């Protein structure tokens, strides 16, 4: 199926020269003069080689049809990250480069969107927001205003995040999994 280059998003799969690539990052550039372009960082599915392509935003790109559905994360071992289809109970193992930065968030029993092509996992999408607990952070400085300053904090899953000064160790917070940013204090 052909789509325009500017509509490509992270996790999409495109076909070029008979090979499949998963989109890692897509950015549209609109210069003052000249043609707007789309720059796409991709990983070739067959061997994991990363590449960057640049297209005019209106150029047609072949988007591959992949199976995207909800899977349950089971566990990870030396062979990879294992997922189960909750309807058919089929299991697949994804390699560490398919999982990438999402590995820190994975917990047994968690539901994720897994994209597969001919039965092989090619991309993973986490829930947009998740609740995590703060394991370490700096103490509050008296007189510091909450409006503009954030402080670094480490979560129990090993992800660094910037939080407002009133957040202490042991506090549960909601973070955006796409860019590891603080959203709000978790409602208990």
Largest pleated sheet: 5 strands, antiparallel
Structural class: mainly beta
By DSSP (H or I, 4+ residues per run), the number of helices equals 1
Arrangement of strands in the largest sheet: 9-8-7-10-11
Q: Which value, in Å, is the CA radius of gyration? A: 20 Å
Low-confidence runs:
none
| Beta-strand content | over 45%
* Helix share bin: under 10%
How many strand elements?
Answer: 16
Q: What is the topological layout?
A:
Elements: E1 2-4, E2 13-16, E3 19-29, E4 37-44, E5 50-56, E6 60-62, E7 67-77, E8 80-84, E9 91-94, H1 96-99, E10 111-117, E11 120-125, E12 129-137, E13 151-155, E14 160-163, E15 172-176, E16 181-185
Describe the structure in your own words:
The chain is flat, with a radius of gyration of 20 Å. The mean pLDDT is 86. It has one helix and 16 strands. Strands 9-8-7-10-11 form a five-stranded antiparallel sheet. The protein has a five-stranded antiparallel sheet with strand order 14-13-12-15-16, with no helix packed on it. The chain has three domains: 2-62, Roll (SH3 type barrels), CATH 2.30.30.30; 67-125, Beta Barrel (OB fold (Dihydrolipoamide Acetyltransferase, E2P)), CATH 2.40.50.140; 129-185, OB fold (Dihydrolipoamide Acetyltransferase, E2P). It is 2% helix and 52% strand. The protein has one helix at 96-99; strands at residues 2-4, 13-16, 19-29, 37-44, 50-56, 60-62, 67-77, 80-84, 91-94, 111-117, 120-125, 129-137, 151-155, 160-163, 172-176, 181-185. The protein is mostly beta strands. 21% of the residues are buried. This is Elongation factor P.
């Amino acid at each position: 199926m052909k789509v325009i280059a500017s509509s490509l998003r992270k996790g999409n799969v495109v076909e070029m020269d008979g090979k499949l690539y998963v989109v890692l990052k897509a950015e549209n550039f609109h210069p003052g003069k000249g043609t707007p372009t789309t720059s796409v960082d991709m990983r070739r599915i067959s061997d994991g080689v990363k590449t960057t392509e640049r297209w005019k935003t209106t150029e047609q790109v072949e988007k591959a049809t992949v199976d995207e559905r909800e899977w349950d994360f089971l566990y990870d071992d030396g062979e990879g990250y294992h997922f189960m289809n909750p309807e058919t109970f089929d299991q697949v193992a994804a390699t560490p480069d398919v999982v990438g930065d999402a590995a820190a968030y994975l917990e047994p029993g968690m539901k994720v969107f897994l994209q597969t092509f001919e039965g092989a996992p090619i991309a993973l999408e986490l829930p947009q927001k998740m609740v995590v607990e703060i394991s370490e952070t700096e103490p509050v400085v008296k007189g510091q205003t909450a409006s503009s300053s954030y402080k670094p904090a480490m979560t129990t899953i090993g992800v660094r995040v910037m939080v407002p000064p009133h957040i202490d160790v042991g506090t549960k917070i909601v973070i955006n999994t796409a860019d590891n940013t603080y959203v709000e204090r978790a409602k208990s």
